[in-house]
């Protein structure tokens, strides 16, 4: 039977499967290069400039809003008409890399640059859980 | 750095009508533009031995167009996989091919049914492979949505406002109103701009370029050859292509880009000006890749017309209008003339330098800048008459 979920879904590959496996289990895992200590996103096979393989490590899921958009005109219309307005953000994670996610738990008008956020696990199918972020109170 | 200053020239230009529904194959649009450019140069198909284009799998292959045109010996026939960054890349590639002896006279084109066929602005494949895994499933799918993320960051970093974008949109429309080629010739006031609906904050409809069917082509040949042809040659003084670190898999892959308040042009600037031996102050007219209003600011800042963050105030007060110190997008740009992926900018620059732009003509224009691209990768040329 066809899934009722009709939005784009990630197609995990050899680089991204650990990330999506983690998301499904409610854990954010990121790649880190042992030699530099740098965290990487999106996932890759090699650390920048070398054949070093990054390791997968647990991440805090905390960060701040780097930039965001509020989608008001749905594209494709038939898929997103019921969702607008919605917010997509790039979040600067505490680990030092950036990551993408929907912003939930606040109105578009309340979003501010630098706003502290934390990850939310948005389960959309049995296989796929998407990253989202929500504001954290002070 | 490009080392062929003034050694090659644009000898011919051609374009189709720009429409919403051509009712024709992309290949036939390409063929029409190419044949017009060849005729404009005073050449025949028999004189052409190279053909170069760029596309997103949305066009006709160069060899197919060469076949329809009847080119006997397309010794150098290449399609670059490129988006908005490609328009000046392919002209520079043509000069390199001729310099290397791979061809003598090359026609370069971009052709697309960008409104009636594959719509770049209308969404993408819903299967999220590669880097798209981290964007499309969030409902972050279209190019306006991609660029709005950059625009927001410039507002955060530098206090840029919609007032600056309104100035760009209305100035370019003013130019399109007197351009018989332009698709949007209805005057646009600031109120019209502010009253256009939000598509994806912070962008309104009038911050976003058109979608078009059409084709543009130019003929490139050696300067000494061009001087013997029908038109006044427009010389390629300089050029650059590329754009810094972490250019990524595609234009959505900007998660790692150093700062969304500057784009590729910051990284191209030294090579561009160095290759031409001039600076921003020497430019008489500039045709800037304007897929969105905001992208104009990043090009001006990155190329050193003003400092990073000062693009907003820089464009105000008539500076970029036809009578201003730095007239921009005298044809109306992608925002108001047509979206032929920036190749229509090259056509307009050549017309300005030939002095054949009619009511749009910038008097005494001797040096023009064309840019292509708006995000992590781009290309640019300096042309002179």
TrEMBL record, chain A:
Residues 20-50 form the ChsH2 rubredoxin-like zinc ribbon domain. Pfam families: OB_ChsH2_C, zf-ChsH2. InterPro entries: ChsH2_C (IPR002878), ChsH2_Znr (IPR022002), NA-bd_OB-fold (IPR012340), Thioester_dehydratase-like (IPR052513). Residues 56-121 form the ChsH2 C-terminal OB-fold domain. PANTHER family: BLR3430 PROTEIN (PTHR34075:SF5). This is Zn-ribbon domain-containing OB-fold protein.
From TrEMBL, chain B:
This is Acetyl-CoA acetyltransferase. It comes from Sphingomonas populi. Residues 275-382 form the Thiolase C-terminal domain. Keywords: Transferase. Pfam families: Thiolase_C_1. GO terms for molecular function: acetyl-CoA C-acyltransferase activity. The keyword Membrane does not apply. The keyword Transferase applies.
